[in-house]
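Margin note: ligand = protoporphyrin IX containing FE.
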Amino acid sequence: MSNHDTEKQHITPYWVYGLILVILLACTFISVDVVHYDLKAWSVGIALGIACIKGTLVLAYFMHLKFDNVLFKILVAAVIMLFVSFILLTFVDYLYR
Amino acid sequence: MTTTIPYKSYLEPHGKYRGLLDWLTSTDHKRIGLMYMYAIGVFFMIGVLLGLLMRIELFSPGETIMGPQTYNGIFTVHGVIMIFMVVIPGLSAVFGNLFMPIMIGAKDVAFPKLNLFSWYIFICGAILAVLSQFTGNGPPDTGWTFYAPYSTQTGTNVIMAVTAAFVLGFSSILTGLNFIVTIHRMRAPGMTWFKMPLFPWALYSTAWIQLLATPIVGITLLMLIAERLFKIGFFDPALGGDPILFQHLFWIYSHPAVYVMILPAMGVITEIIPTFCQRKVFGYKAIALSSIAIAGVGYLVWGHHMFTSGMSFTARWVFSFLTFVVAVPSAIKVFSWVATMYKGSIALKTPFLYSVAFIFLFMIGGLTGLSLGSLATDVHVHDTAYVVAHFHYIIFGGMGFAFFAALHYWFPKMYGKMYNQRIADIAWLINFIGFNILYFPQFVLGLQGMPRRYFDYLPQFETGEILSTIGGFILFAGLIMMITNLINGYRKGEKALDNPWGGSTLEWTIPSPPPMENFDTPPVVSNEPYDYE
Amino acid sequence: MSDVAIKHDEHRDDIGAKLGMWLFIFTELLLFGGLFLVYAVYRNIYPEDFHLGALQLNVTLGTLNTIVLLVSSMTVAMSITAIQKGNSKLSMRLVLLTLLLACVFLVNKYFEWGAKFEHDLYPGSDLVLQFKRGSIIFFGLYFFMTGLHMFHVIVGMVVLMVLWFKLKNTTINKDDHVLLENGGLYWHLVDLIWIFLFPLLYLVT
Ligand code: HEM
Ligand SMILES: [Cu+2]
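Resulting structure:
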């Protein structure tokens, strides 16, 4: 017997993907539009924040993380944390030079 | 006994083709392991010969057999070969492939074809590394670290050597990927995570480093190539780049990479010591989890290679602190090994001797590592022979001796033959003595101020340098003796038993050499490993 | 988790295959991660020069390409739903549509890069070398990052083509579609990276 019989399959309905796309596009327009306001230091933060939201949506829905094995979620989180610690430690150098 | 039943071992022909092609097209994990071993064995000997050439040059002050440029080229290839082609793939690709699937009760790795593919990539990378010596404008002279901005400016054939390192890294990534999936998905029924032997545990942690750290050096090397080809300026101060950033990126990978070398070595030692003491390993969970801890914290200490680079002062003490933290799990392992021996019935066989040598040399390497990790002392000895001695104690005394231990431990299983144990013991002694005469003087020389990567030196260092060269030749003799003994064992050794050492892990329950499919019926595991009581 | 059900199964291990794909994706993420780190460092050193550099980029084309990639990400995700429902015709069409969108992306990029080259804006050009140091780095990063991303788009297109053929000869079918899922994951990765590249390069003004 192969594994996938025992594991119940999750079929994402088409409309969910459609909805996600709409949200993603909306986010894109917001972040393009935000550029025109003078938000100073915030602008990068907002652009990145929106990108993070978009990235999370892609990971969760398009890439099925939400419905997949927990192991995958843990691993993705761990990899992101690892990358963040690379950035932080490197900046311990650059910010204090 | 199962040995009396005829079966087809993995060494016998089994594919469509005969002879060499039968091997080159085989996806059997044991065969791939052996293929890695033969390739790595050749690279190792080349590296050793290059090392000896450098030692001869340093036998007396002034130009002895080569000029500075040749010397620069030789220490670069020596480093590239030894690091990227010998120690990084070494234990995991050879003994990981040979025995990890058997130890977890699997038939093969998760992706056997990918496994063979990794071997081919490895060979391609190796060929590129060799080609870089003979094409372009002369052999690269940057050292294996390829530090910018020199590496972006020197006229030598850096691009090809860097490409070689990139390709070799790719092979390493794929091996790591394969092992992680194998260990997650293919353990025998009943083998829970904490019933898994400790060598697979070590390989598991290692695989995560190979997988997640290698891409960083991959992109760094690509940037270096782009910089040379298109003047992008990432690391060139004249174009706005920061050479120190290169060092950051390089060591984000290369420090974890030293754990790729040493973790499997620790895993091997953890297999051997319980077997030859016939005692349950002390602190099983502590050893398993400390591997993971080393892999995790090992990502965060890279800056200790950059104390004198101009990094911020805050970063220096942070990295120094983290370096001391990572020493803790390593020390836990040493205590566990020693505690396992306590009150055991110790059999002083060759693999055990190599393991004891490992512990001794690793301790010296590790403690001197701490003195390098502490900021103030490092500033004094950075880029001196002290560093050379330190990392040879770790990589050669640690990983290298563990490799020899593994070789002598699993040899009867791999080939179904036994080597001459007396000669093996003598070779061990010569290796051990030679090693210490070769590298110990370099600690002293370094403290006295002998710089690293120099083809010449002041007369006051002569005694130490001569001693060191003599040690090199003793070690070389020991290595030759060890290798001939093993080859003789393979050719005309007596037949080995299925379980010559009384080991308790799954590979000792199957015939020697193992059959093609490893197990007739998939094993079911119920007890913990190392259950000798 | 995997402790409970470990099977010795000669046929297939879908979870294993997917785990393998995810691990591969991690390596790709960190490959680009290294670049993002470089970006962060230099942006921190040269905020103004990056600002000036970003002004030279064509936000309209960039936005267009973002939309194209997002839509293509959806179509490839839908193709999995289609095959799960047994509709391999639709699944093939969706894969083909994704491929088409990938082509649109490349054509767009061609015009974008082409315009840059026309204005002598490429690494090592005499014009760029006269810029302030931060802008030199910005253009270096721009070309290197989008170039590497483009390389991944091309690899992704090859993957999509393979998927299409496998759907055609029913190697990928209702009961066995882990290949399609893995191929899809790769394509989403391409999208995911662009989601971060786009604001960092085009919108940091
Ligand atoms: C008989 C064996 C060996 C000898 C005689 C030897 C000798 C040497 C010498 C003389 C140097 C140059 C030091 C300098 O001038 O800065 C060197 C560097 C080095 N060796 Fe070895 N070595 C041996 C084995 C190994 C092994 C087994 C490894 C790795 C596991 C290794 C890794 C390195 C590395 C990474 C460097 C640094 C290269 C560089 O500075 O770029 N060596 N070795
Ligand atoms: Cu280090």
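The CA atoms of residues 33 and 92 of chain C lie 33 Å apart.
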